[in-house]
């Protein structure tokens, strides 16, 4: 009888091991399906061109910093062989070949032999001829959408992820950004209506002062943190100082201290005629990094967090 039990136990153990192996192989197969992208892929880009990418790109050139930041966030740093003169993040971009600024160097790009060039809709209409030269040289050119809100950024990430075979990473990046945005909204929702601040955002200083209004990233950011924009016009507009003084914002945010003007906060506090503005009287003036609040890439969430800390320092410590 003992022998019979031993045989039965051995059989049950063998079945269990085989079942476990089967489950492991199934899981491995499912994981592989999630991470592998079948090429070729066809993408309709921002200028309505159907771009067919035959193989996973091994060499990529980016024509604009936002595309570069997305590519790095998707783990494509090693594939980047060319970036624009304006690229400054992450720090690794300093060691990557520069291909020009607003007017990119077609010959230089071709010499780098990229499989894929990530262009951008914001400048594509000014570089139609150059982009066509790249296509004629056998290089895949993908014009990424010009995002004006967070939904557009998620679309850009999805497009670049699909073009490079990094769809899983793109989905995870978007999910992570959305989760962080939800956390910020939840925290902002606890701010009582009577405590919500009015804000003026200054994107360039004197003599030509510009601000940001409706249908911009910064408007969406202010909406997210339950703050009111004192500017009601649309887009990026030149400032009427008297109108801002009359609006009397509780908080003033500048975004140009890192690249255009030293000590922008002090300059606003010392600005003639602004002495009675609440933000100036209470010294509620702060400078935030321009790239994180204007560049349509993964760091926009960081921009929202910095803006929230500047407007509501007690609530967003």
Automatic annotation (TrEMBL):
<feature type="signal peptide">
    <location>
        <begin position="1"/>
        <end position="19"/>
    </location>
</feature>
<feature type="coiled-coil region">
    <location>
        <begin position="167"/>
        <end position="194"/>
    </location>
</feature>
<protein>
    <submittedName>
        <fullName>ABC transporter substrate-binding protein</fullName>
    </submittedName>
</protein>
<keyword id="KW-0732">Signal</keyword>
<comment type="similarity">
    <text>Belongs to the bacterial solute-binding protein 8 family.</text>
</comment>
<keyword id="KW-0175">Coiled coil</keyword>
<dbReference type="InterPro" id="IPR050902">
    <property type="entry name" value="ABC_Transporter_SBP"/>
</dbReference>
<dbReference type="GO" id="GO:0071281">
    <property type="term" value="P:cellular response to iron ion"/>
</dbReference>
<dbReference type="Pfam" id="PF01497">
    <property type="entry name" value="Peripla_BP_2"/>
</dbReference>
<dbReference type="InterPro" id="IPR002491">
    <property type="entry name" value="ABC_transptr_periplasmic_BD"/>
</dbReference>
<feature type="domain" description="Fe/B12 periplasmic-binding">
    <location>
        <begin position="59"/>
        <end position="315"/>
    </location>
</feature>
<dbReference type="InterPro" id="IPR054828">
    <property type="entry name" value="Vit_B12_bind_prot"/>
</dbReference>
